[in-house]
Amino acid sequence: MAVYFDHRIEAPESSAVPSHLTWHSALPVLAVASSSPTNEGNVDLYLQQGEYVESCHVGRAHQPRVLRWHPTKPVLALGWENGEVMLLTHPSGDQTVLPNTHTASITLLEWSSSGSRLVTGDQTGGLAVWKVDARGRLQGNHLVKHEYNKPLTCCIFKPAAPGDDVAMLARASVSGDESALDMFSWKGAPLKMGPQEGLAFYVATADGKFHSVDERCKTNTLLSVEGAIKKLFYLIKREALAVITETLMLSQYTLGPEGGAQEYMKVKLSSKTGQNVDIVWTENSLLITVSGEHVIRLWDLERDDNYVLSLDESLGFERGEMINCVSYCAAKEILAGGTSHGRIAIWRMVAQPGSSKGDTSGQWKLQTPTEIGGNVTQIQWGSSLNLLAANNSNTVLILCEHVMSAHFGQQVAAVQLTPTQLSITQFNTGAQLALQSDTHIKGVCVTKESVTVWNGKQVTGYELSGTVLRSTGEFPCDSHVVAVHGENLYTVEPNRVQIRTPQGTVKQLLTFSKAEGNPVLLSVCQSYLVVGTDTAHIRVFDLSRRDAKAHCSAKNLADQIASLGALRSVKCNANGSQVSILISQVNGRPDHKVYFYDVEMDTVTHFDFFVGRPTSGISQCEDSERQQFQGTELSGRCPVSHFWDESEPRLFVCETVPISSESSSTSSVDMADVSVVTLFCTQEHGLLLQDCYPKPAGLQALLALDVPYYYFSCKLLFWRAGVFLPEPGERDPGLTEVSATTSAPPNQTQPLKGAPVQFPNMVSRRALREFVGLETCEKATRDAMLNFSFYLTIGDMDEAFKAIKLIKSEAVWENMARMCVKTCRLDVARVCLGNMGNARAAKALKEAEAEPEPEAQVAMLAIQLGMLEDAEKLYKCCQRYDLLNNFYQASGQWQQALETAESNDRIHLRTTFYNYAKYLESMGNKTLALVYYENSDTHRAEVPRMLQDDTSSLEIYVNKMKDKNIYKWWAQYLESQSDMDSALHFYECAQDYLSLVRVHCYMGNIQKASAIANDTGDRAASYHLARHYEGHDDIKQAVHFYTRAQAYNNAIRLCKENGLDDQLMNLALLSNPEDMMEAACYYEEKGTHMDRAVTLYHKAGYVSKALELAFSTQQFSVLQLIAEDLNENSDPALLARCSDFFITHSQYEKAVELLVAAKKYHQALELCVTQNLTITEELAERMTVTDSKDLSEDARKEVLEKIADCCMRQGNYHLATKKYTQAGNKLKAMRALLKSGDTEKIVFFANVCRQKEIFIMAANYLQSLDWRNNPEILKTIIGFYTKGRAPDLLAGFYEACAQVEIDDYQNYEKALDALTEAAKCLLKAKDSSGGQQEARVADLQHKVSLIKKFVHARRLYPENADEAVRLCEALLEEPELDPAVRIGDAFGFLVEHHCQQGNLEVAYRKLEELQKRLPSQNVRYYISQASLEALQRGMGVSIDGDDHRQTVKEEDEVEEDLNLS
């Protein structure tokens, strides 16, 4: 927690009331303007602690109006009431008065972003632009002057267009960013620098007009609004302008590239009328206003959200206190407001998980106020140090944030309360003291005998004796860090550490080389001092002797730790063997690792809190459940403070916060999610995680570790009405509060030095988990417990038990059992429970071993030890919500149990409701118990039971619920009370017809009972009434109601006893088979109604008996009905007998079915053949025997072939194919399939069977199809002949293909190819025909040679026609030319040639010769129509070789073509 040191400015006596103040943006210099009642004005400059700068005093006879600092240079622009503008330079005090340009009061001073331009404006509307050089000096006269004739109210420079930030790129390049480095390299694209600053600006006037001035200083009016413009803001993300008028009307405008402005939003801001409004605009588009109310109003323009922040009286604010002014610090995310009662209200931005910054008002947390007195009229954050200046109407105070100082050493703790006050606690004696210092305290160091405080300029020492503090001396010293050991003080200065006496005398110097740097960090533990320098070196010194001696050489950590920026903190352990280090990275962010330097081994290791485990190779046993249990608690965190135990060198503790919060402006120790992590650090085993638990609420920060306690500072208190009070909601529940009722005297506002204090203890100590309940144990027990914990952590159980074997105390064993809950070590827990003698806990732990989750077993151990919070956490961790529900119920946490059941354990929701209802009933809360009995759906029985002693309430509940079960219960109760009429009413409401009939029968209302039974058909009521009638010998009514009750055996019994044969048949058919059998026997014995007996035997399932009785009594009509139910499971003899019966009566189909059922397949097939019965696929399947027990394999195949033969005769080829295939006769199956003509199935079957004969049969079949026009069939034929190994048949097919090509298409080329393939096939074929194959091959080769000659002649014709004609004529002389080459084709070739050559006579002679050799052929087959017409014209003859058939054919073709078209 931070406190604010307030420094009142050292104003000269001549200064008057301050009116204006402003900080330099980078330097800690404050400018304050003051005015006297005589209208004289002064401007003075002050440093960060209020030091007055005499050289920079400016005084005038006029009042100052505007103050503006140069953005980067220590130059202040002053605007006076008389129109004078001057520049004041710090620290020289040089004053530069601008040329006399303005004649009225200055209202406007504004610098450009880099300070190269200064805009001045006055009350009359005069505006001037001045140029300033890089040193902040004025260059000549004004650049331009504009007159707007109205008072100027505000001005804003337009931001420059975005370009590459050279400085940022340079820093990124140095850090190793290759992309940034490439932008500087000549290999990359040219660097886009962009303008260094925007020179265009906007200016507003009191009449609501808004003007723009461009880089060339040309002005243009953009827009006009109603009322004077009070504030201007530029929204960089939207490239828009926000305008606020005096009436608090907020308007937003988009700015076009041509200079135009378009309004897109307008809203009226809320405020208190008649008050001066203070308005602040933040970079993240947050608009903050105060107007003399008790609230601050905030508008988030990006999210379109608004909310208010108000003062809280419980924090020390008073009723009626108003906020006058506001200021926002972006670097720290702090909002400060000055109040009318002299307080500074501060809100911090608190990071909320899962939400963005500035989302809602819930992210702002109001802090403890700082009181400065007076009426705060102006506050402002400023400088790079984030100082806050406040004007309280009397003077100006500078507030500097300082983290509360606190220190613990040798059982003494000191915690800072205010800038000048400490609270001191002595734990050995329990005494509490207050130390009031004369100066601000910036640091404190305590031992058991001394208290030392310092402020960076002076060190003051006090001797602590009992409850008395006595000053031992003070001396000036600039050291910002001090350490104390014994009577020695250790301070730092450049390149050395000074060892001083309490009075400041230097006794010894510890020097550091230039490379080792300047000491900046000091820490003492026992007799060892560790020093950290600004160059990341550390040195350890031994203080046990008279003079400090070096314990080790200087260690340069920069060589060991990558990306090390600076050391944040260094601490050493009790024997000086280990040094822990926290660092900041190069980018300034804290590192999420804590580093350990082993002095003896000269090595550096680390524990990484980001991943929640130590450096590689240094860890506890991996099978420990604790790693999994604590993994989520440790990961993603960052260490903020660290300590070693003051006496145990192995024990180290570290305070961590989430990574997301460690970089925020809020002090890390203010975070709620702070974890305290304890480690064992040894040379042999490295880093071992010992414990991790969240920091308790109400505690501020970890101070120290001193076994058996952790020591924490408590949350900040605030001073009110003379006493210290804790912040509301931040009280530590573990503290015992000291009485604070006595108030200080009116003239005393602070406790005296060393006086007893009147506030709660500021330091709280919490026992380590090993020492809960053992806080006062002796040192031997303490050491044994530490050793036990250490060995338990490393998994060495033998050493762990050896460490505690001499301990006899049950409390110690119980404490160790508690440790086992934390470490999830059930094996150790069993030993501890045995030594405790806790049989119940041991039994419960044994039973819990049945649970599969280790956490659930540990949770049971925690319950037995009373660690209910740990048990709850463990059940949640393993998601055993059923056990968690039981745990809540057993511990009386019923609301949590109900919530758990509703959200995660719904299977036990009703059970939970029921148990809670039972609990409420036991507590006497019957009203609420009734509700939960209803929720558990057990109210029908439980509520009447619960209310049975309160009949009036029960009757009201019964009538209210209108539930049938409750009505029935109540009716039974009334019946027991002999209130029959009321009972009948409620039985009727419950629709309990049995009870109605029972009561009516009891009362003698038989007719009413009969009506109820008949109307409702209720079986139980009918049965009760039937028994009543039977008892009164009314057999007819008894049988009727037995029948309605479906109690047919009783009805049948009465019918048999009383001879009611007609009713007996119907009742037997309605009843079960046993009753049917009895009725059939009754009819058979009686000898009458034999048809009924047969039917009943059949219905009862006794078919053989029914058939035997039917045949014997010639009941043929019934016999047919019985036969329909016969199947293969029936008696074969009965089946045969029935089939003979059906054959006799010509019902052959039924006979066949019975023969098949009797497995007489041959007879069934013969009957099908003789009677020409169609064999259906269903019948065929029934006759297909699959079980070899019924028939042998040969007999089964014979039956299948007979079935197939029948199917073939009947034309059912597909079924025949199937049966032949099942019989294994694939050839017959193929023949049947071929008869079906199903090409697709034929091809499929051939491919499946893969037999030569079947391939050949399929190919032969496919040749009968139109293979000429279907290439797929052609390919299939060739493939099948090839697979069937029939080259001779394939050759024949190729010959047929060649002939088709010649006859149909005259394509001798394809024919030649086909014949060539045929010849190849014949050559592959085996000759088994006695020389016929050779002759066939010779004939094929002769044909091939003739076709080759003809093809050659045709191909030669285009090149050498004469040679082609000669070859063709020679070919005609060949014997047996036809059918290899058709004679007509050869003659046609010659006729065509001579016609083309004009030799018509020769052509005609060739035509006549063709007609002679082929007198029956039509010459038009061979000669084109054009050649024939040429011959007719040239020779004058008529050539008509068409026969009648050809004419008819052509006519048919023409007719077909016409139809197609």
State the gist of this model.
With 1461 residues, this protein is of the alpha+beta class. Helices cover 38% and strands 26% of the residues. A hairpin with a 4-residue loop joins strand 18 and strand 19.
Q: Can you describe this structure?
A:
α25 (1061-1070) runs antiparallel to α26 (1073-1086). With 1461 residues, the chain is an alpha+beta fold. A hairpin with a 3-residue loop joins β58 and β59. Strands 26, 27, 28, 29 and 30 form a 5-stranded antiparallel beta sheet that branches. It is 38% helix and 26% strand. The chain is built from 47 helices and 64 strands. The radius of gyration is 57 Å and the shape is extended. The longest helix has 25 residues, at 1332-1356.
- Given helix and strand content, the structural type is alpha+beta
**On the 0-100 scale, what is the average pLDDT?**
78
- Poorly predicted spans: 186-190, 616-632, 661-670, 719-724, 733-757, 1442-1461
**What is the tally of helical segments?**
47
SS strand fraction: 25-35%
Number of extended strands: 64
Distance between the termini: 102 Å
Form type:
extended
What is the radius of gyration computed over CA atoms, rounded to a whole number of angstroms? 57 Å
In which range does the helix fraction lie? 25-40%
How many strands, what sense, and barrel or not for the largest sheet? 5 strands, antiparallel
